[in-house]
């Protein structure tokens, strides 16, 4: 965080604030992580891909919960009307026909048991800690900071555009149907990021508020990066799978 520690010390215009936020994404978003590069290069085993999908489910499942916490704290009905679209995107109409269900479809399409995925107990401890930290951040920090932490969605369409074509081209057991989660996400993320960016540009009027926005996005990037770090440590060449966590060798038929 050091390079962005005093980014707003003299105050920023809305355009300058956006420039700083986009710089954070360019330098710290997890499309720069070595594990992402291995995935798009076709270098992950099926077991490693399963571990990624299983652990990422923990993050996917907490998104509507953190958005509900944000909604509960928002006094502006217009804000709530816009923000609740995020919950509808992930939960759908009955809880299991939205983005979370499509992620489960991805995970089971890779050969994982549905109950194992949904139960989350086989996820890495570091994954659960990171996701819990994100939920706590959105629950306990200011509404401005909670909204700002969602701005990783500025960069989501980019990572999807890298990930999906590579997965389809380089893993013969992955189909477009398995990856249906990603079909709607670029448009949804762009819509949500535009709203959140406009919100923080309007509401962050002091240097202190602007720095809080910057720090919130750095924190969120760190959450996503740490999840890939944990996967690489457990399922990469080190092979240090914690007790109780998913083990591809044991899960193999």
Number of strands: 0
CATH domain class name: Mainly Alpha
Tally of helical segments? 12
Give the CATH architecture. Up-down Bundle
CATH topology: Heme Oxygenase, Chain A
Q: How is the biggest beta sheet arranged?
A: none
End-to-end Cα distance, whole Å, is 44 Å
Structure class: mainly alpha
Poorly predicted regions:
none
What is the overall shape? Answer: globular
Gist of the model:
The protein has 253 residues and is an all-alpha fold.
Which descriptors apply to this entry?
globular; Heme Oxygenase, Chain A; mainly alpha
What does this structure look like?
With about 250 residues, the chain is mainly α. It has one domain: Heme oxygenase-like (Heme Oxygenase, Chain A, Up-down Bundle), CATH 1.20.910.10. The protein is built from 12 helices and no strands. Helix 3 packs antiparallel against helix 4 and helix 3 runs antiparallel to helix 5.
Write the SSE topology.
Elements: H1 14-28, H2 34-40, H3 46-73, H4 77-91, H5 99-109, H6 114-119, H7 125-140, H8 143-149, H9 156-170, H10 181-203, H11 207-235, H12 248-251
Helix pairs in contact: 1-11, 3-4, 3-5, 3-7, 3-11, 7-11, 8-11, 9-10
């Amino acid at each position: 965080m050091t390079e962005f520690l005093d980014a707003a010390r003299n105050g920023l215009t809305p355009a300058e604030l956006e420039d700083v936020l986009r710089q954070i994404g360019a330098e710290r978003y997890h499309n720069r992580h070595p594990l992402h590069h291995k995935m798009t290069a076709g270098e992950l085993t099926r077991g490693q891909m399963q571990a990624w999908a299983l652990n990422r489910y923990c993050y996917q499942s907490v998104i509507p919960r953190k958005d509900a916490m944000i909604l509960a704290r928002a006094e502006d009905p217009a804000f709530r009307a816009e923000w609740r679209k995020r919950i509808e995107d992930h939960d759908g109409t009955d809880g299991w026909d939205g983005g979370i269900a499509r992620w489960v479809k991805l995970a089971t399409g890779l050969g994982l048991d549905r109950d194992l995925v949904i139960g989350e107990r086989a996820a890495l401890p570091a994954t659960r800690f990171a996701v819990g930290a994100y939920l706590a951040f959105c629950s306990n920090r200011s509404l401005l900071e909670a909204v700002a932490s969602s701005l990783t969605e500025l960069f989501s369409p980019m990572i999807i555009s890298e990930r999906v074509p590579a997965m389809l081209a380089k893993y013969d057991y992955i189909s477009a149907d398995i990856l249906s989660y990603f079909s709607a996400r670029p448009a949804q993320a762009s819509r949500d990021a535009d709203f959140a960016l406009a919100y923080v540009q309007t509401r962050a009027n002091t240097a202190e508020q602007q720095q809080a926005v910057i720090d919130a996005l750095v924190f969120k990037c760190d959450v996503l990066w740490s999840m890939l770090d944990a996967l690489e440590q457990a399922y990469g060449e080190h092979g240090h799978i914690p007790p109780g966590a998913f083990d591809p060798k044991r899960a193999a038929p």
